[in-house]
Design a protein that fits this description.
The protein is an alpha+beta fold. Among the domains are: 3-67, no CATH class; 73-146; 179-211, no CATH class; 219-307. It has helices at 69-95, 127-137, 148-155, 166-169, 179-184, 191-194, 204-207, 209-218, 266-275, 286-291, 295-307, 337-351, 355-363, 375-394, 408-431, 433-448, 452-456, 465-471, 487-492, 499-502; strands spanning 3-8, 16-19, 30-34, 39-44, 49-50, 61-66, 101-107, 114-119, 141-146, 225-228, 231-239, 244-249, 254-258. Residues 347-366, 373-383, 391-397, 433-457 and 517-528 have low confidence and may be disordered. This is PSP1 C-terminal domain-containing protein.
Length: 528
């Protein structure tokens, strides 16, 4: 079998085979070769290897020699001359008004001729252009028309994916690309997304076409119902690079499963044998669902086991359970035997275990809220006094629950009851208690260090409100909306308001529309 060595040239679309003629040539060497156009320099892309004779379409051209440093310097000089010739090439094309786009100029290594590459949509009559180029460069001229794909490969660039263009990086012959390949890969049929820099369909559409075609031939079709332990599931989409299917259950849960993990049911195998085709999987077993790392699927399987009567617990490990170490104090239950023992222990710790703490624990009296200081405390004390007076009047025991506001009649009854109690206590003091009260005042004055004469200089006694209400000197009235802050009630006397006075006054609303005459002036009467 003949031995060949592949060589890549600058403006060639693929590697060409040459006869190494026993030269010690390896990959990455530059070689001077004899081609149909003349002598050219190229890059060796692989070591020499043997090929069958039936793969050779024509006799092999020889490799003249391995390029030296002088040859490489001369090749660089020719490349620079080609870049300089592009300016004259563009100028002459514009001068002849030809519909073509200059792409590049190549000087052959042997100096036989200069090749001018251009791109055009249609055929171009460039006979006059060849004459002008010959008179300008004084050498043999060769014109080559190339397509937009070859133009992009020669110029180079980057694709939408951020990588270098496939035609520049891989090279090779261009293979046809159709829109069917984009449909097979479920790509959007948008020309801006599936077209390359050259304006044609991207070359990479053909690279993965066979993989997509093979996967779809083995996988069940979309919208097919798959049997699972959790019910029927519908195939929503494919993940071809990973060979996975996205399934959606009737409950709305979505999960992914590998195509290799799916199995075929007996009915599916029977139909495949009858029709003489391959069997496509249509079942997902329970062990496959258990391997899926999805909390929704795990909870659904647990619920399925509960319905079947299997005790699966709560499905949480010890580390996942949230158990409070001690409940909040304001949420503890203070009723029952446990609550009494707990309060008694707390009373012994706080009061040193005295009788008061024990008595409080036995009575199991709930702890009251701490009263606010300032004006709020005064308001709370007044409210508690009213509630206590009303409960005492009705003969009920006081409770912690906040009562509603007293009416005017209930307030009057409470004041009268307080006045009666105070009158009874003063009468008892006149009978025999004054001496004791007098001694108590004397003792307190001596303990405080003040002389007894100073205590006698106290403020004159003023009758309390309860006494004034009981005697009838003060009439208790309730302020009503619209009574002018109690002024009208004072004029008419307590309880002397008429039905018209007791009714709340309605505020007169002004009309928003101006009342005007011919001059448009505002004639609305004033509030006075």
């Amino acid at each position: 079998m003949p031995v060949v060595v592949p060589v890549k040239f600058a403006y060639a679309s693929r590697d060409l085979w040459f006869d190494p003629q026993g030269l010690d040539i390896v990959e990455a060497d530059h070689a001077i070769c004899s081609t149909e156009r003349g002598t050219e320099i190229g890059l060796v892309t692989a070591d020499p290897f043997e090929v069958p004779e039936d793969e050779l379409s024509a006799p092999l051209k020889p490799v003249l020699r391995i390029a030296t440093d002088d040859d490489l310097d001369y090749a660089d000089e020719l490349a620079q001359r080609g870049d300089d010739a592009m300016e004259d090439f563009r100028r002459l094309v514009k001068q002849n008004e030809l519909d073509m786009k200059p792409v590049g100029v190549e000087y052959l290594f042997g100096g036989e001729k200069v090749v001018f590459y251009f791109a055009a949509e249609d055929r171009v009559d460039f006979r006059q252009l060849v004459k002008d180029l010959s008179s300008c460069f004084h050498t043999r001229i060769d014109m080559r028309q190339i397509g937009v794909r070859d133009e992009t490969r020669l110029v180079g660039g980057y694709a939408h994916c951020g990588q270098e263009l496939c035609c520049t990086r891989f090279g090779g012959q261009f293979e046809p690309v159709s829109i069917r390949m984009a449909k097979e890969q479920d790509l959007p049929l948008n020309s801006a997304k599936i077209s390359g820099v050259c304006g044609r369909l991207m070359c990479c559409l053909r690279y993965e076409f066979e993989a997509y075609k093979d996967f779809k031939s083995r996988a069940p079709k979309k919208k097919t119902l798959i049997d699972t332990p959790l019910g029927k599931a519908k195939i929503q989409e494919y993940n071809t690079p990973r060979e996975q299917l996205v399934l959606r259950l009737e409950s709305g849960k979505v999960f992914r499963v590998n195509l290799s993990d799916m199995t075929c049911s007996e009915g599916c195998k029977k139909r495949a044998e009858e029709q003489g085709c391959s069997c496509r999987p249509d079942c997902v077993t329970r062990d496959i669902l258990e391997r899926i790392e999805s909390p929704d699927i795990a909870l659904a399987l647990m619920e399925l086991d509960r319905e079947a009567g299997i005790d699966v617990g709560d499905g949480l490990s010890r580390a996942d359970r949230l158990v409070p170490e001690a409940p909040a104090r304001h949420r503890r239950q203070r009723s029952g035997e446990h609550g009494g023992e707990e309060r008694s222990q707390r009373g012994q710790r706080g009061r040193g275990g005295d009788d008061r703490g024990q008595g409080a624990a036995d009575e199991q009296t709930p702890r009251r809220r701490r009263r606010r200081s300032g004006a709020g405390a005064g308001a709370d004390s007044t409210r508690d006094n009213r509630g206590s007076a009303r409960e005492a009047t009705e003969g009920q025991a006081p409770s912690r629950r906040r009562r509603r506001h007293l009416s005017s009649e209930e307030r009057d009854d409470a004041f009268r009851a307080a006045a009666a109690r105070e009158a009874a206590s003063s009468a008892s003091e006149k009978d025999g208690a004054p001496g004791r009260s007098r001694r108590r005042r004397h003792t307190s004055a001596s303990q405080s260090g003040q002389p007894t004469g100073e205590r006698s200089q106290s403020k004159p006694q003023v009758p309390s409100v309860a006494d004034q209400v009981a005697s009838g000197e003060v009439k208790v009235t309730r302020r009503r909306p619209g009574d002018g802050g109690g002024a009208r009630a004072a004029e008419h006397g307590a309880g002397a308001l008429t039905a018209d006075d007791q009714a709340p006054r309605r505020r007169r609303r002004r009309s928003r529309k101006p009342r005007g005459g011919a001059d448009g002036a505002d004639n609305t009467p004033s509030a006075e």
